[in-house]
Amino acid sequence: METTFTWEIKVKNCPLLIKKCSHCDSDRFYCSDKFRMNAQKKNIDVWLIYRCVKCDNTCNLTLVSRSKPDLIDKSLFHSFSVNDKEAAWQYAFSAELERKNNMKLDYGSVEYEVISSISPEDIQNLSDEVISIRIKCDFDFNLKLSSLVRRCLSLSANQVKRLFEQNAISTSANQPLQKQKVRNRDVILIDREQFTKSLKEIAR
User: Fold this and answer.
1) Could you report the per-residue pLDDT of 184-202, keeping only the tens digit for each?
2) What is the DSSP secondary structure assignment for residue 15, as one 8-state letter?
3) At what angle do helices 85-92 and 74-81 cross, to 10 degrees?
4) Domain ranges of the chain
5) Which of 67, 69, 73, 160 has the most CB atoms less than 10 A away?
6) E strand or H helix at 81, and its extent?
């Protein structure tokens, strides 16, 4: 039998933009959650506005360049018009936008919380052979899978490494643990018997 749990990752802020400010000595900009729109003749440009963390100097990242208004999805156009925060965050976490604007994001600046309801003790006390943990994460921000497991199960880096090596914890990704990043709908599988055995061996 298999029991399924969910780890829901809630981000608290967008990643900072790494860029030298032209007005002060700062090299970080934060997303203002606001758009700038400019219409010239029959074309429209749209930018996402960033501000310096120290002096509030602005930096605009190009989202739409010289496009016909009727070529932009109506709901997206409305989001631009009303400074929709959800739309701004989708762009602020976008790897495509990062490449398009030749910029670098500081993913280490993203703070997050995990809504979780399972502990190592819970796992060991279950009767099921396999515990399945599904990850819900609306944004990709280069979070290491090993870091998430450490945080949610209150384990050390060495414990997590050993548990993966002994197949007490596994994923479908064919990659070394240290290279695995968290993605929405990822599934972590825990072999309860091996998990319990490995933790006891580690504790000796």
Assistant:
1) 999 999 999 999 998 888 7
2) P
3) 100
4) 2-11+111-203, 20-102
5) 160
6) helix 74-81
